[in-house]
Specification:
Elements: H1 3-14, H2 23-26, E1 36-40, H3 55-64, E2 69-71, E3 77-79, E4 82-87, E5 93-98, H4 112-123, H5 127-135, E6 136-143, E7 146-151, H6 158-163, H7 172-175, E8 192-194, E9 204-209, E10 233-237, H8 242-251, E11 256-257, H9 265-269, E12 274-277, E13 284-290, H10 300-309, H11 312-320, E14 326-327, H12 354-363, E15 371-376, H13 380-395, E16 400-405, H14 407-413, E17 427-433, H15 434-437, H16 461-467, H17 476-493, E18 496-502, E19 506-509, E20 512-513, E21 528-529
Parallel strand pairs: 1-10, 1-11, 15-16, 15-17
Antiparallel strand pairs: 2-3, 4-5, 5-7, 6-7, 8-9, 9-10, 11-19, 12-19, 13-17, 13-18, 14-18, 20-21
Helix pairs in contact: 4-5, 10-12, 11-13, 16-17
Length: about 525
């Protein structure tokens, strides 16, 4: 990102009327309609939150599905679809009764059978669900509105598991689909309905207010409380060119822009109708995820080489430009969580250590295998970081190659476990909210249980034995001690490499208010448009 490029972008935006906004944006009617909100959110391709935990997919799921519990702004669990619940004296049997007024968008009623099937499907892939199933003796319907979870041993964090990154409830027919296959009907019981008739894949998707949705009476707090819808429609726009997206925001043809380009922050700040707003206060940690199943990163030496190769400050400058938006990080748990620590972080060196990285690749037996880096072309920061990483690898003799696509393409391809010759991948860059990285039980990137782990599929049994103890540890001091042991193994195995922590805002028109600040995702309820 050079000065000349930044100046060019500013000049292009300043031209205003000369900039061509896509017809798919211009053609949408009712631009002054205060009951319709248009949001430039990215290219949504995967709609099933069990199949992938991509931010786009989860934001979509929050709109159309509902959850048994919701996490408040401090990540405490609160009933959502559940009306009443309780645990037996021995803490081994939990009984959940659904609240009144729950119905699917197709007109049928939500039942306990649907919930049981949804939990079982989700539990096959989610870290918290896997722990639940390891301790569950039975999960079954009691009557149409009531189900029970019977455990072999107590699991005090069960409400937390069901609240944070817990299962979205689906109809039984959808929940019976294998988690390796996508649910595509998009019928939930949430506050918005997916408008199938107006869906234009690659361009936009429409969500209509669910007039039959009955919100809880509590005030909204994070993902908990009443999901009160104050608008009639949300149009999810895919505007792949970020300069065009900013122009559409300025023209009033978009109300909200997720991840505006850092180069154009000053342009947005200079417009009296627009505002940059930080919804995720602790920000995100950017990292390089490697495919542990395929060469060269099936070798621990090759993964350790990446740990020494990455120059965090250079990568962050390439991605985010202004240092006020980023800082380096060395703990697997981020900079600001209660369990962040400095165990086994001697690898960190200002500027990186390319010679050490080259030596470790040689020790790994690297023989010129192609390293394919998935490059998200519609996410400027991720694209810039990917290009610098490829160039850095090439400088030490690694056969690195970029595979450009939009983020939707990255999400689709990263699920493939094949070799790069058969459409697989070696590396992709992404981010995860600092606020949730310390949730060891539910955080998707933390398991190292092989085929059951997140993309990259790392496997380390010693680490997993430690991680599985987390649910039974009650004091913060004991958790800090366990976190240090986990981090020792983590940075020896190296399932991923940190790039750094960043806090960047969304952009909105000032007429759009009521946005709920939660890490990574954008709930559609509560917002309104003047």
């Amino acid at each position: 990102m050079t000065i000349s490029r930044r100046s060019l972008l500013k000049a292009g935006i300043a031209a205003g009327a000369a900039l061509s906004v896509p017809s798919v944006v211009r053609a949408q009617t009712g631009l002054a309609d205060t009951r319709t909100v248009r949001m430039a959110m990215g290219n949504l391709r995967v709609f099933d939150p069990v199949f992938t935990a991509s931010d786009d997919t989860v934001s979509h799921a929050l709109a159309i599905y509902d959850t048994l519990f919701g996490a408040d702004s401090k990540f405490g669990p609160h009933p959502q679809m559940v009306g009443k619940w309780g645990a037996s004296d021995d803490k081994k049997t939990y009984t959940f009764e659904l609240r009144d007024g729950l119905g699917w968008h197709d007109g049928s009623s939500v039942t306990a059978t649907d919930c049981v099937a949804s939990i079982r499907r989700w539990a096959q892939v989610a870290p918290g669900g896997q722990l639940l199933m390891a301790r569950a003796k039975d999960i079954s319907k009691k009557d149409d509105k009531t189900f029970t979870i019977v455990l072999k041993e107590p699991l005090g964090v069960l409400p937390n598991i069901l609240a944070f990154q817990g299962p979205f409830m689906m109809r039984e027919k959808d929940a019976n689909i294998a988690p390796t296959e996508q649910v595509t009907d998009n019928i939930g019981s949430g506050p918005f309905k997916f408008n199938h008739a107006l869906a234009q894949p690659g361009a936009n998707f429409t969500y209509d207010r669910n007039e039959h949705y009955v919100p809880r009476k509590e005030a909204p707090d994070g993902l908990a409380g009443g999901k009160i819808v104050k608008i009639d429609r949300v149009i999810w726009q895919n505007i792949s060119d970020q300069q065009t997206a900013v122009a559409a925001l300025q023209a009033g043809e978009t109300d909200f822009l997720w991840l505006p380009p850092v180069d154009l922050f000053s342009v947005i700040e200079g417009d009296p109708n627009l505002e940059l707003l930080v919804l995720d206060k602790t920000g995100q940690d950017m990292f390089v995820r490697m495919n542990c199943l395929q060469k060269p990163f099936d070798s621990v030496k090759a993964r350790q080489a990446m740990l020494h190769l990455v120059d965090q400050e250079a990568m962050l400058r390439a991605a985010y430009g202004d240092p006020k938006y980023f800082r380096t990080v060395t703990s697997m748990f981020g900079n600001e969580t209660p369990i962040s620590n400095d165990q086994n972080t001697g690898w960190f060196k200002k500027g990186g250590d390319p010679e050490r990285a080259k030596q470790l690749f040689n020790e790994a037996g690297y023989a010129g295998e192609k390293v394919v880096i998935l490059q998200p072309t519609d996410w400027t920061e991720g694209s810039n970081a990917s290009q610098l990483l490829a160039a850095t690898l090439q400088k030490i003799g690694i056969n690195a190659e970029l595979a450009p696509s939009d983020w939707g393409g990255v999400v689709t391809r990263r699920a493939k476990k094949d070799s790069v010759e058969n459409g697989g991948w070696s590396i992709f860059i992404t981010t995860e909210p600092e606020a949730i990285i310390g949730n060891v039980i539910t955080e998707v990137i933390l398991p190292m249980n092989g085929e059951g782990a997140w993309y990259g599929w790392p496997q380390n049994d010693d680490y997993e034995r430690l991680r599985n103890k987390w649910a039974d540890i009650e004091t913060l001091e004991d958790r800090k001690a366990l976190a240090r042991k986990m981090q020792q193994i983590w940075w020896d195995y190296v399932p991923q490499v940190l790039i750094g922590q960043q806090v960047v805002p969304i952009a909105r028109r000032k007429t759009l208010t009521g946005l709920i600040g939660v890490p990574s995702w954008i709930p559609f309820w509560n917002m309104q448009k003047a």
